[in-house]
Amino acid sequence: MLIKSISLAILSLVSVSFAETCVNDGEELCLQANGLGRAYSRCESGNQVVYNCEADEFCYGSGLSGIMCIQKK
């Protein structure tokens, strides 16, 4: 049980240390140019968290108002 607890503590520290940091909480950015990919990141409590649009949608964003997931026709 002690080994399991120590392992979990180490894993949580490692995952935090490799997370990208950010300063603008709530900021969203597409990870690729508009319409080329589904992935986007959002700044949450100082950490960049990566999300994906739905399978049939692609990420678009102006840089000012966040991102939109839009279906390509």
What's a quick, concise take on this entry?
The chain has 73 residues and is of the alpha+beta class. Helix content is 22%, strand content 34%. It has one domain.
Structural write-up:
- The strands form two sheets. The protein has a three-stranded antiparallel β-sheet with strand order 1-2-3, with no helix packed on it. The protein has a two-stranded antiparallel ribbon with strand order 4-5.
- By secondary structure, the chain is α+β, with helices and mostly antiparallel strands.
- The chain has one domain (20-71).
- The protein is flat.
- Mean pLDDT is 80; it is low at 7-17.
- The chain has one helix and five strands, in the order αβββββ.
- The protein is 22% helix and 34% strand.
- A hairpin with a 2-residue loop joins β2 and β3.
Q: What layout of secondary structure does this protein have?
A:
Elements: H1 2-17, E1 28-30, E2 39-44, E3 47-52, E4 57-61, E5 67-71
Antiparallel strand pairs: 1-2, 2-3, 4-5
Q: DSSP strand (E) fraction?
A: 25-35%
Order of neighbouring strands in the sheet with most strands? 1-2-3
Give a quick account of the main beta sheet: strands, pairing sense, barrel closure.
3 strands, antiparallel
Structural class category? alpha+beta
Helix count equals 1
Distance between the termini: 54 Å
Number of strands: 5
Write down the Rg: 16 Å
In one word, what is the shape?
flat
Q: Strand-and-helix sequence, N→C?
A: HEEEEE
Mean pLDDT comes to 80
Number of domains: 1
Helical fraction equals 10-25%
Unreliable runs, pLDDT <50, ≥5 residues? 7-17
Protein name: Carbohydrate-binding module family 19 domain-containing protein
Keywords: Signal
Signal peptide: 1-19
Organism: Smittium angustum
